[in-house]
Amino acid sequence: MASTPGNQERLDRMRAALDKFLGLIDHKATAKNFAHALPHLEAVAAEKARLQFIQDLKTAIQDDLEGLIVKYELGPRLAELEALTQEADERQRHAHAPTSAELKDVWRPTIDIATAIRARVSAEQAPRIAALEAELAELQAANAASEARIASMEAETQAAQDQVSRSFTLLDELLHAISMQAPEDEKALRATLDTLLQDTRPVS
């Protein structure tokens, strides 16, 4: 909410009040006080230092004030406060009872000014928010299904890799048996071949 001329006037009055306060610096930082505080300086140098000190101090304080106005968005906050008080005054002119619903939706002790002013706008956005929440729920369900499919595929892939690994191990054992054992050990060789064929059979 933009700052209104009335709010700008309030800020200007605050700055003017600060300027009056800064006048106390001139009253206290006199040439006599400076000369007493810095006796080793010559009079001309002390006066220059005094004037520079006063100017720098005033500028720093004024800059801090402007920084606080910007940081806390004082202009817009004053505008919100003015809008809220005007609405409250208007409702009071209708002589509503203190417990009337017409007054209850204006002020709450637990919410800030901006929330109170935007409450009606939030209510109008409720259907859109509900639709977005439903869409989000659908996306989450679809993601969960995709993750389940990926996990299943990974398990199947791992099982196939394990089967291939076992087959290679049996093949190594077979080659070792052929090269290291005598041909007459036909019974052991047949058992190894049967095991290999059984393990490499396609999974139904």
Structure overview:
This is Nnf1-domain-containing protein. Keywords: Cell cycle, Cell division, Centromere, Chromosome, Coiled coil, Kinetochore, Mitosis, Nucleus. Residues 129-163 form a coiled coil. It comes from Malassezia pachydermatis. It holds the Pfam family Nnf1. The chain has 2 domains: 1-96, no CATH class; 129-200. The protein is elongated, with a radius of gyration of 43 Å. The mean pLDDT is 75. Helix 1 (5-28) packs antiparallel against helix 3 (43-71) and helix 8 (126-180) runs antiparallel to helix 9. The longest helix has 55 residues, at 126-180. The chain is an all-alpha fold. It contains 9 helices and no strands. It has helices at residues 5-28, 31-37, 43-71, 74-93, 101-104, 113-117, 119-124, 126-180, 186-199.
How would you briefly describe this protein structure?
This is Nnf1-domain-containing protein. The chain is mainly α. It contains nine helices and no strands.
